[in-house]
Design brief:
This protein is 43% helix and 17% strand. It is α/β, with parallel strands linked by helices and 161 residues long. The model has no long low-confidence stretch (mean pLDDT 94). Strand 3, helix 5 and strand 4 form a beta-alpha-beta unit. The N and C termini lie far apart (38 Å). It has a five-stranded parallel sheet, sandwiched between helices. It has a single domain, classed as Rossmann fold, CATH 3.40.50. The relative contact order is 0.18. The longest helix has 15 residues. The protein is built from six helices and five strands, in the order H-E-H-H-E-H-E-H-E-E-H. Bound molecules: 1,3,4-trihydroxy-5-OXO-cyclohexanecarboxylic acid. 1,3,4-trihydroxy-5-OXO-cyclohexanecarboxylic acid binds next to loops.
Length: 161
């Protein structure tokens, strides 16, 4: 009985709480092993766990998604337009190339935070151009994995306003 009540309460909270989706682009599943001098040693699993935990503290539901495929990222953004109150996205290499990701983000009427672990402006010139910075609510880069937590704090404050 107590378990049923608990599940009901959790479901009710999930319906009432604001929901944030964090979308990670290609090769971010390799964090920890991938160029640690640039991206750090923390794995994506640990970042995602940290985001869910911080979400609980902030009173928002955090779901996470990673794909190496542009179309699947577009599908997730389209899904976000129906099911989420805010989007945090690191499109990784698609940041610099994807009109499809940009067009999908243009569907959204909710806050969008663009985030990068590395400072893309300190790196090769081809990384200086983002296809989405001008349509994002805000952009964070160069703070490593901590940037994800800053982004979640920021989007949660924006949603509370
Ligand atoms: C990145 C920066 C991109 O240029 C790169 O292609 C990535 C990761 C970052 O988080 O610093 O894959 O988005």
């Amino acid at each position: 009985m107590a378990i049923k009540k608990n599940i009901k309460k959790q479901l009710e909270q999930r319906i009432e709480s604001q929901k944030i989706i964090v979308i990670h682009g290609p090769n971010l599943n390799m964090l920890g092993a991938r160029e640690p001098d640039k991206y750090g040693t923390v794995t994506l699993t640990d970042i995602n766990k940290g985001l869910v935990k911080l979400g609980e503290k902030l009173g928002v539901i955090v779901d996470t998604f990673q794909s190496n495929h542009e179309g699947l990222i577009v599908d997730k953004i389209q899904d976000a337009s129906l099911n989420y109150d805010g989007v945090i996205i690191n499109p990784a290499a698609y940041t610099h190339t994807s009109i499809a990701v940009r067009d999908a983000l243009l569907l959204l009427k909710v806050p969008i935070i663009e985030i990068h672990l590395s400072n893309i402006f300190k790196r090769e010139p081809f990384r200086h151009k983002s296809m989405i910075s001008d349509i994002a609510t805000g952009t964070l880069c160069g703070f490593g994995h901590l940037g994800y937590y800053m982004a979640l704090e920021a989007i949660s404050s924006l949603l509370k306003k």
